[in-house]
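Supplementary notes for students who missed Thursday's class. We covered one full example, reproduced here. Read the sequence, then the structure, then the short commentary at the end.
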Amino acid sequence: MYTYAFFHSSTPPLNVLAGIAGEVQVVENGQLSALVEPDLEIEVLQTDDSQLVQAVLTHDRMICELFWQTTIFPLRFGTCFVSQESLLEHLGTHQDSYLAKLARLDGKAEYRLKLTPCELPVSAPPDVKGKQYSLAKKQQYQDPQFLQEQQSQLAQVFASISKIYDDYHITEVKEGVEKLYLLVDRQQETQLYQHLQEWQNQSSHWELMLGEALPPYHFV
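Structure (token representation):
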């Protein structure tokens, strides 16, 4: 039984579109419910790449639709239970744990903060071109003082974030780009953007970009 997310049973009736391949329904056990697509056979989708990609996109859409209506515990794409009975048993066994997690996520959203390192402008003579220009650019970009200042600014931003927000998740650095995810009350989004401007003002060697509110994928 394909399952999208868990949420409180007291949630008002949901307004969601059809799922990956058919209709969805709510399975309830006590205070905890799950949105499922009972007739979906995930194994069939895995034999066709185009269908699989579309299924992943639909899964994400369903999660987002739920997220804007209620507090949810989003599940990864491909989460299935062998039967409705096994799902009900899972909801019953882990009910207290999921309810505690839902309480922590209540009213909050995930925001991605992306920090891209800026390059130091190359101060090469105008007549320097081609390989010589590339070499000058590389040497200047690797300037120890510039790199030290850049790392100092990054540490300062992280320190500022940790003083304001308790819930954040830093991911692995790729090609010098830093990414972290913040769990923030949606009613405090305006303050978050104000903090973003403050962080950018103190980080001339970095370009900061904040994503839109998303379901708390990195906090479950």
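Commentary. The domain at 108-219 is CATH 3.30.70 (Alpha-Beta Plaits). Residues 122 and 138 are 9 Å apart (CA to CA). If anything here is unclear, bring it to office hours.
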